[in-house]
């Protein structure tokens, strides 16, 4: 009984280890995402800012959707510097206050009108 339990435990730990390892390798791969566009809300701090830098490093067009123009523009400069991107037209700030339906509608209409490419990724990193 104890032996069967231990064998089961070892198999479970091995399966979890293999799953985590294969998932991590996918996340850390240095894939080139040029031609793709990502919208990131809450991109001026925390998780959103870190993701914006990672996507910019992979040559994605990055739309930083933030409610403060000052923090959004500051984040844009930070992303460009951290990702070592000089094509600053591909990392853009757009105003979006998620607590206002009017702002959400404006953001959506503006994005549909001005984005030449189909959006591929949307990341919500705001409260
Ligand atoms: N950090 C973690 O380890 C972790 C783990 C799991 C899940 N999460 C989730 O990930 C999300 C972000 O976490 P975080 O740690 O990165 O938080 P954070 O640093 O506080 O960032 C929150 C972001 O949301 C923005 N935001 C808040 N209200 C907004 C609104 N009405 N319109 C537009 N943007 C708004 C903030 O903008 P302002 O600067 O203008 O306030 C800020 O950029 C949260 O939902 C959290 O629950 C975080």
Automatic annotation (TrEMBL):
Keyword annotations of the record: Oxidoreductase, Signal
Keyword Acetylation part of the UniProt annotation: no
Gene3D superfamilies xrefs: NAD(P)-binding Rossmann-like Domain
Pfam family, one: adh_short
Leader peptide range in chain numbering: 1-25
Coiled-coil segments: none
Top-level taxon of the source organism: Eukaryota
Name of the featured protein: Uncharacterized protein
